[in-house]
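I'll show one example:
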Amino acid sequence: MTVPDVTVITAVYNTMPYLTRCLTSLVEQSIGLERLEIVAVDDGSTDGSSRELDRFARSYPGTVKVIHQANSGGPASPSNRALDVATGRYVFFIGSDDYLGPEALERLVAAGDRYDADVVLGRMVGVNSRYIHQAIFESTQSDVDLFTSALPFSLSNTKLFRRDLIERHKLRYPEDMPVGSDQPFTIEACYRARRVSVLADYDYYFAVRRFNAHNITYKSRHLERLHCAESIMDFVGGLIEAGPRRDAVLLRHFAWEVARLLENDFLALDRPTQASVQAGVRSLAERYLTDTIRDQLGIETRVRLALAWHGELDDLLAVIRQDADQGNPPAVVENDRWYADYPGFRDPRLGIPDDWFEITGSAADWIARLDTVQVAFEGSRTLVVTARSPRPDLPHLASALKIVAGEVPAETTELIPDITGTTIRARILLAGLLTDLAPGGKLRLIQARIDAFGTTGTAPLRGPRRAVPQRVVVRRGTRLHVLTATINHKGQLIVSVAPVTPRRVMARLRRRLPLGGK
């Protein structure tokens, strides 16, 4: 029997109708069915996914293998079961609501063989405004290092792995993690790999954000995510000895998983949950947060971690409320050194060193931080953004200021100072937002770019404090697109550009109509 070049593994739980597109993209791969094995593990689906898997298994009996099991509560168990029966030279993991570009597997396997790589990443694209960190995909590289590249910010399992690496090191998913179980697997694979390669020459993987957002990642709560962060960081702590290499990996987890625990939605938690999250974050900081990691974190994350570690719960809440309700705090300037005057700064009761609040090296970024006052579409041609800076001297400090949506600059940007600050008004042409779109649309972050102090500072605009999504439908050629101005999970102003598709229309109707459509 011929050994397939690649086994594609997918853990399936209630992903119809997305599952059909996923499986179709696999059986239609240019690599050919004779070089492909698909192992799908149905984790107790109740929505018709089981029947769809069996239908594909009947249609492609030499290629598609289906395993049915009772629901396990996460992707770890089904992924491990699939690994136990996989026979390909390589293994590739795909989410059952995602899909591949037609040549993805052929290109990935060829690169693995060409570069003698144990792990290969192909460029990922977000669909339906799903965010994908893109730094690692800036260029094709035959050999990237886990500790000196952006690889720690791309630790999902959606990669090509040499199966010999997996079996030699007995790599499996931790089944006590309902969320994030792919990260320990991926981290150790990249750590053990002789070579990790990155391909940026093709759209390999399309990561879909579901309209109903019913998968477990979207549903996870603070305490579950805290447990996930603790498990991952303890795993890294046991795998990599303390020092710069461990810091390079844990920087990602403090900047992402831990930081997200302390975002503005922390304010909506009940007090016992807030206290539990703070205690968990404090423990992680005590064990793993070095000065090297701290100095690479953004000011908001850094200050919130400082108060979570060294303050009481009310001190942490005061800092988060400052950002959520009051906007940018003032800056303290002493002897050419800049400090963010957050609650807790030089509070003798807390004794937190000034280093936690210093912004000297990023003063231009600091004055680029603007609060959105209003955002509105003018017809189908223009997005008007009105923002506010607390600095009356902003026009004097900034030799240039512009507002951009992604890389699309505003047509005009006005600065209007008064005694309490400066108003900024920008007009962004919608035609520019419709350029360079991926198949599933694009998400554009609205940012301010300011030339000051001999450098360029950049900061996302904070969304309006009482944000109401603004939408407009715009035609480009024969296609319609929905543009939505809203805020992301960090409270930043974004514009989502998405094509109007029958599936999107039906999803919106299902949300608006009662059951039965009556």
